[in-house]
Design brief:
The complex is a heterodimer of chains A (136) and B (404). Chain A is built from three helices and eight strands. In chain A, a hairpin with a 6-residue loop joins strand 6 and strand 7. Chain A folds into two domains: 68 residues, 2-Layer Sandwich (Alpha-Beta Plaits); 53 residues, Alpha-Beta Plaits. Chain A has 136 residues and is of the alpha+beta class. The two termini of chain A are 29 Å apart. Chain B is α+β, with helices and mostly antiparallel strands and 404 residues long. Chain B is built from eight helices and 24 strands. Chain B has a domain of 99 residues. In chain B, strands 3, 4, 7, 10, 15, 16, 17, 18 and 19 form a nine-stranded antiparallel β-sheet that branches. The chains are: A alpha+beta (136), B alpha+beta (404).
């Protein structure tokens, strides 16, 4: 079974000089698509990638990264809603491509299903009270 | 119209703690069960509420005089870099909700983000935050000072008044985009090929939809405004009562509006929220609630109209709206809009909203509690709003080009 996930990789200083992504391709046959990168020699690095491959190889690739000292975060956790600012207007309902927002009852309070979030960022600037926040 | 009660009688009951108050939502089932006649006898007040972006809003305030004196009037003043209107007396200023800093890129980087503007300044001021004032003036014999740079706080201002010239629209368009590219509007981001439909009304809780013929709401009516108490000051701009209506008198598109006023010092930033519309501009979302005294069976019938019997007109914002084309894509009920999907030209279209229904519920509920607790009495309007037969009309500009 193939999987495709968006993840955030934090590279501590000591591993930024190793060609880790190269090994993901060569050793684990994973495809990657870089969404955001901030990697500088001798500094901590950050990479947001979409990683695609067979389930087993994917899991082994992730283990390889962890063993190499890379910290991995699922991207979905990085878009958050500021509950103080959200007015439950419902402007986000139709904009989210992965249908994270939903109204389920008569009060029309907007539910935010973070587990469906792919962190595309569409909701961030479209939110009228600016309640959606992205953290890399 | 046969009157059953007067506002004075209802106020007597409020004072005695005997008034029966229900929200515009609760009343629907009560009237369905008990019938109009009995409900009108039993219910004294129906509370309404609405919360959404309302652009023609702003505040005026008196700064207090500087020493030496300075005539800000006719000069230039900014509040947190947002320009205020200075065409008033020496230290009176007006700030509009849609004003934005001079260095905001607007739509030069399309679609512009519009993260901060007058509405945000008002929200922060009401929240008790210090606001940075920068002023320059030309100097006069009696007002010699030319520069001012200071922080202000709402508690130190003299008068500080929310004054909105058009709020609480009685019904509104449902916005769609029939073009092939995404558009960014005051009705939100509209996806191409009718990819979504956005509405902006509290429907069955909306004040003017619950008193559609302005039988009880008029000039001088006391209201919930921005978390405090305000008043209806005047018909709002673009007042247009002559639009098509249902047999119960509910307008089928935008009609009446309200100009409202109230002391900002007793308001709350939860109900005055700085708002950014991607690619369009900044504004402020405002909470308004109005009590409807049930004076007659007619008032009761209207106050009990549900979402299913309220209709809005679907308008294309890619071409028809900007070019003032008098065409539409039909009508849809608020019940359908709130179901999450409507059908336009045979296509199922998801719906989004700009008006917060949960906040509208909260306002109607708060107003109900205020009245129950005897903290809020009803007012008799001092003058009526123009009705459907008044001849009042919202006209387009009659442009008369000036030859060079």
């Amino acid at each position: 079974m193939a999987v495709s996930k968006r993840i955030v990789l934090h590279f501590p200083k000591r591993v930024t000089d190793r060609p880790l992504i190269y090994h993901l391709v060569k050793d684990y046959d994973l495809e990657f698509n870089i969404l955001k990168a901030s990697v500088n020699p001798d500094q901590e690095g950050l990479l947001v990638i979409e990683l695609t491959g067979m389930r087993e190889e994917y899991d082994r690739g992730i283990k390889f990264l962890i063993d190499a000292g890379v910290q991995i975060q699922s991207l979905s956790q990085d878009v958050t809603r500021n509950e103080e600012r959200c007015t439950n207007c419902g402007n986000c309902l139709t904009l989210c491509p992965s249908h994270c927002f939903e109204v389920t009852d008569a009060s029309r309070k907007v539910q935010f299903h973070t587990e469906k979030c792919v962190a595309c960022g569409i909701c961030i600037k479209a939110c009228p009270p600016r309640a959606m926040e992205v953290h890399f | 119209m046969k009157f059953m009660k007067t506002i004075a009688e209802i106020n007597e009951k409020i004072k005695l703690g005997k008034a029966v108050i229900v929200t515009g939502e609760e009343v629907i089932d009560i009237v369905r069960e008990k019938g109009v006649k009995r409900a009108a006898q039993e219910i004294d007040v129906v509370t309404t509420g609405t919360f959404g972006p309302m652009c023609s809003s702003g505040m005026y305030f008196n700064l207090g005089h500087t020493k030496p004196r300075m005539k800000l009037g006719g000069g230039r003043t900014t509040l947190n870099d947002v320009p205020a209107y200075t065409g008033l007396a020496a230290v009176d200023l007006f700030l509009g909700a849609t004003a934005m800093p001079d260095d905001d890129p607007r739509n030069r980087n399309y679609p512009g983000e519009f993260n901060y503007g007058g509405g945000h300044v008002i929200e922060e001021l009401v929240a008790g935050k210090d606001i940075r004032v920068e002023s320059t003036a030309y100097g006069t014999d009696c007002y010699p000072r030319k520069k001012l740079s200071t922080y202000i706080n709402i508690k130190d201002l003299n008068e500080c008044v929310l004054f909105n010239i058009r709020n609480s629209y009685q019904n509104y368009n449902v916005a769609i985009n029939a073009s092939d590219k995404t558009i960014y509007t005051y009705m939100g981001v509209l996806k191409p090929r009718i990819g979504n439909a956005n509405f902006c009304s509290a429907g069955q809780l909306s004040p003017l939809l619950k008193d559609p013929l302005y039988r009880t709401i008029g000039i001088g009516t006391k209201i919930f405004l921005g978390g405090g108490i305000g008043y209806v000051a005047w018909p709002g701009t673009q007042f247009n009562p002559g639009v098509p209506r249902t047999d119960k008198g509910v307008p089928r598109s935008g009609a009446g509006t309200l100009a409202v006023i109230g002391d900002l010092k007793q308001m709350n930033s939860r109900w005055l929220v700085g708002t950014s519309m991607l690619g369009y501009g900044t504004t402020m979302s405002i909470g308004i609630g109005i009590p409807i005294p049930i004076l007659s069976e007619e008032v009761m019938i209207n106050a009990a109209v549900p979402d299913a019997e309220m209709f809005a007109t679907i308008i294309d914002y890619s071409d028809d709206y900007p070019n003032m084309k008098p065409v539409n894509y039909g009508e849809v009920s608020y019940a359908a809009l709130k179901s999450g999907k409507i059908t336009i030209k045979g296509k199922e279209v998801p719906t989004g909203s700009l008006s917060s229904y949960s906040r509208a519920q909260e306002i109607a509920g708060t107003l109900k509690e205020w009245i129950k607790a005897g903290k809020f009495e009803l007012t008799q309007p001092v003058a009526s709003l123009p009705g459907p037969d008044s001849g009042v009309k919202f006209r387009p500009l009659n442009e008369r080009p000036i030859e060079a």
